[in-house]
Queue: 4 jobs
Job 1
Amino acid sequence: MKTPDDFLSSRRAFVRNLSLGAGATLVGGAALASPLHFLADGRTADRKLGVALVGLGKYSTGQLAPALQETKLCRLAGIVTGSPIKAAQWKRQYNIPDKNVYDYKTFDRIIDNPDIDIVYVVLPNAMHAEYVVRAAQAGKHVICEKPMATTTADARRMLAAMQKAGKKFSIGYRLHFEPHHREMMRLGQQQAFGPVQRMVADNGFKFNNDTPWRVSKALGGGGPLLDMGIYCLQGCLYTKGQLPVSVTAKFAPKTDPVLFKEVEAGISWQLQFADGAVADCRTSYAENMASRLRAEGTKGWAELSPAFGYGGLQGRTSQGPMNIQNVNQQAAQMDDFADCILNNKPTRVPGEMGLRDVQLLEAIYRAAETGQKVPIKDVAPVFDRVGR
């Protein structure tokens, strides 16, 4: 069994820089292990649901922990880290008791801790599978950061473990809870501007190697496609509300062969749909991109730009600006999952959706590697439907 410390010991640069950047049938249907008294708004009378963050990199530090200070149904209750320095800092800053602090070797003891209801896995991509499975075996509900896994085999193993545990499982797709993206879903799926004929999505940045795991095949599983490109893929899928039937793709030139020795520097791909619609997408670690999601219908268009950041999103359509207020995306995401647990409801972003996306990401890589059009087969049509 590998722990993050096993990887860290052989990658000193990774030690110094470990950080994280930025309707379907629910897996399992069990509610909490212990009986709870529900209030009218779904909260428990005695406490919020306790969340333990596994991995204290940039995303946990800069986004999730602050968001958990704003959530209404859940709270930051525990941490899992291989760094004693981080453990001490977080205990002081967030008043976390010693009994709720774990490292990667003691993680499994979380099974005996009733303070922890939800485990949020925020580790490098290749570690997601192991820690989701171990969290399931500990009897906890789980949120796993995107991408769910680096292979479909791992994604299926994670789903099986969560099903066996009978606990709820969600992927960290924060934008499903963001109002601009909810509006893009509505406009596209309900064909407010006629059937969507073309979509465009771009998302990327110039990587400076401050988080080396992102360009490590062993830890990241791939490059910008799995990190930034997945937002483009997701955006096109939930705007169109359909699966593509095929995909073509092309790798971008490696402007820095040393930095991008193990993973792609960038990639562009086109999704083709059964009705003739297409989605042209790009992602990169070699250039700063506009962060855009655009959908063009027969009677008009809708666009988000910037589209994929943690805040400051803006939207407009062929009829004018959207005028939608930004929200704390992570707080909305985690409160929604807590509500699903408290009221035994399905999550909008289940593990099956994560598996769907891993399958599609693998198809994009195959298309780029072979230079051929790759048909999309045996992928479950799992969608976040507006109005459900």
Job 2
Amino acid sequence: MPFPLYLLGLAVFAQSTSEFMLAGLAPDIARDLGVSVPTAGTLTSAFAVGMIVGAPLTALLGRRRPGRQSLLVFLGVFLAVHVVGALTGDFSVLLATRVLAALANAGFLAVGLTAATAMVAPDAKGRATAVLLGGTTLACVVGVPAGAALGQLLGWRSAFWAVALVSAPALLAVARSVPRGPADTAGPGPDARAELRALRRPRLRSVLCLAALVNGATFCTFTYLAPLVTEVCGLEARWVPAVLALFGAGAFAGVTAAGRLADRGARAVLPAAGAALLAGWAALAVAAGQPAAAVALVPVLGLLAFGVGSTLVTRVLYEAVDAPSLGGAFATSALNAGAALGPALGGAALDGGLGHRSPVWVSALLMAVAGLVARGSVRRRERSA
């Protein structure tokens, strides 16, 4: 894989750390800013909503701008709003910074996915995607637990400062090492309306829907994993970073495996992996009161959740081959539609008094719906054949 891909992965690491670290910081933010834990959880949903809107919008606006220039602008804005977030004492301002950070993150990821797949052979999109999304899983392994640990030691604001500091060298690395790609030198690409017409294809819409549901299930539990560990498993708060790291280690293994399988054999693996993920969420909900069993399930679920999600992202890029500028935006919007839906449903279950296990049951329900969508898609293909 080309070295600049790994530099894009470094920037994604900083951005994903910011998106995911709230899973370990939500209780502290809630106490400090005088809001409930579910309200603090809306920071994750706000970030996801910003990415849903931002991915296609920034991709459309940036179609005629140099790709490297767009990456630098998005990363610079992302850094700046984290400084504001670290300084504010107003929850509404913090919420606004999350939306702005999400818009910048969405633009970077949409352009980055397109740039990454353009750097490799047409049949290596899965491996390129795995390198880029490897920054996401490393954020789960290193960034999120480190952010949680910093939050416990120095307060949640220190985690925001840390993200800004990591973004600075990523900004310099992208400026110095990412080459001028086709988007920087070629003439106008395909018409935007022609690219948007790709969304009319039933197969692409099905894959996008599946990506949203799987990611929704993942973030529904992940957002509220810290209170699950302390309130249901009965572990002390100091265990939260370690449990988050276990989830991230599994996620890294899942994305790595998906990078090897997504280009070939994805259709054979996805049904079994999806069924296993449904069973895994249900098992965690049942076993959450047993610390050893719950902790053992966490890395397995990280592996399955990110392995299936990463494979679906690759399938989106293959299905949207005639939308070279917006394919990455389609995938980004689908992932973050799920990342907005999942925490919102989990928070509603908590607000409804259903207990700290309820987000995990919601994750299982979302995977059951994904299974029905996948089965319907297969039946439509069989009828058309």
Job 3
Amino acid sequence: MRSCSRRTPHVPGLRLPMALSAILGLLALLMAGAPAATASDGPSASADVARLFEEAAKATERYEAGRRAADVQRAKARKLERLVDRERHQLRLLREDLGRIARNQYRTGGDISYTAQLLLADDPDALMRGQRASWQADLAMNNAIGKAQRTARALDSGEQRAQAAWRGLDAHQADLAQLKRGIERKLEQAQWTLQNQADEQVTAGRCRGAVRLDEREPDTGRPWVAPVEEYELSAGFGGSGERWASRHTGQDFAVGIGAPVRAAGAGQVVRVTCGQGFGIEIVVRHKGGYYTQYAHLAAVTVDQGERVRTGQWLGQAGTTGNSTGPHLHFEVRLTPHFGSGVDPRTWLAERGVDL
């Protein structure tokens, strides 16, 4: 792998004064490390991508919350619709019963007054008891009809309110979806600006240097973590394919350009390079003699020699070097050099991290 460092060329037969040689040697030593970003680099696409990732995550969270609320409100409206339908059915049955009672009374009593019915009745007491029962039945029927009508009106009103509420939630959801799409478009533009800057660094073989980003304090409660938080596993250790000259030497995580890449464990950054097949890469040495590698990055947020904590951001994922799409290539090695890798999934699982 070609390093991003540069060395002063040796010209045979040329002798330099000792002081000048010392100055040139110091300059060469300074150039060997990854230089820091300068003011000419302009606004940081790294920071834009990190900020937009956060905004997109929050917009997605709000969108999902709105969708769930609208679904709940729609379910309430449908339940009210079913209640209204049942009440209306009961009301129709009550009205039919009332009609039958009225018709029956008309047939039995006709146009004869109640007084005349008493005078002509064989058993006036029985007639009075029957009439009293009929009045009570009529009163109960009227009360039931009134209650059913009031209930139907209340349910109609509640149904209309529920439907208006979920229509409002749907409109709010549409606004959230439009906001989410706008943020995602901005994020995509910022991601490819970041990737273009990274490709320029790899082509030049000169790393831009660490770009410091605002990040939340890493979770220090665990000694080891996955190198990215949200991902899909793609190519695994030992796999074969036309993309590799031999077996695949690490575990790939499919993530978006600019996704934060974090230290799998505490350690010290021993290499930051930006050339050859791995593109922009970082190697970290851990206690116990193991090393982890993070490759195909779009940016780095640490410098060579820096000590890092578990979960601390090391850089941002990308697709530099020999890469067919945005992802993180992650290796666990016995040495800092290519060819000494072990299976990262097994190694992490032994340390309590299941991918």
Job 4
Amino acid sequence: MYGESSTVYRAGRPRRRRRWPRVVIVVLLAVVLVAAAAVSATYLWAGTRLQQTEALTDYPDRPARGEGTNWLIIGSDTRADLSREEREELHVGGGGQRNTDTVMVLHYGAAGPYLVSIPRDSYVPIPGHGKGKINSAYALGGPELLTRTVEEATGLRLDHYAEIDFLGFTHVVDALDGVRVCLGEPLRDKKAGADLDAGCQTLDGRQALAFVRARYSDPEGDLGRVKRQRKLLSALVREGTGADVVADPFRLYPFLGSALDAVTVDRMDSVGSLTRMGWEIRGLTAGEGGTTTVPVANPGLSVPGVGSVVVWHPSGSRELFDQLRQDVPITATTVK
């Protein structure tokens, strides 16, 4: 009829508005908040476990800061905290003198990351002590003298410092249920306790320590050992940050706890900077940057009163450190 609305109203149940998008958003938000709380709690917990020491200090004519970031990563061979049984099991002998079995510089920035090994027998000036093997600087003056020795020998300004000891290293590896490595040929070294077959295998803490310490049966000596040290460090970080560890709190927290108990950093370092270091090393396993060793001129040179030493190649080592300081891709030596 004229004047009436032409709209037709259909009978039936009222239409319900779909609520699932809102529910999904709420659930996702809750998950994010729980995850953030867990991360924050983990970060605070880790901060209470972090061990710090005085390692990086100013001194007259200290190298100027370059581009990028430099870490000094060392492995301390102190036996002071090891029982007689532990020393025998780990094949580390006796004595309480503290040296450094591993000395590496991790550089990252616009270029890299690069992990550069410094042979422990490198013959360099040690401030206040004449010339000697670079690893002896730690025994003579602790982390402060070692970092200064490395800075003056390389011309690099160090930004961070990390140290791990023998027993702590084995605990970290065991917390991951071992670390997988592949060997092209067998590795036998009675002094280090290495007795490994060729092929891919999972090393426990004791075997991993022998793997990075063996050098007497290696034709390359200390130069061969530093390659294995870089290889194992990369494998350790790769497995420790893998999804099967990070997503499993029953594996993650034992690993983090053992790592924090084993590592000592400079007093200015934090859990955040240590996490960044691990992330950059993980990048190496993904094909970023590369690893190398300081170029040497004559490995195996014998110096009276010092023993067998390694002398750096004058121009090659200088060019390498210049490239690191400028934060440009390394071309001074072979990078793998």
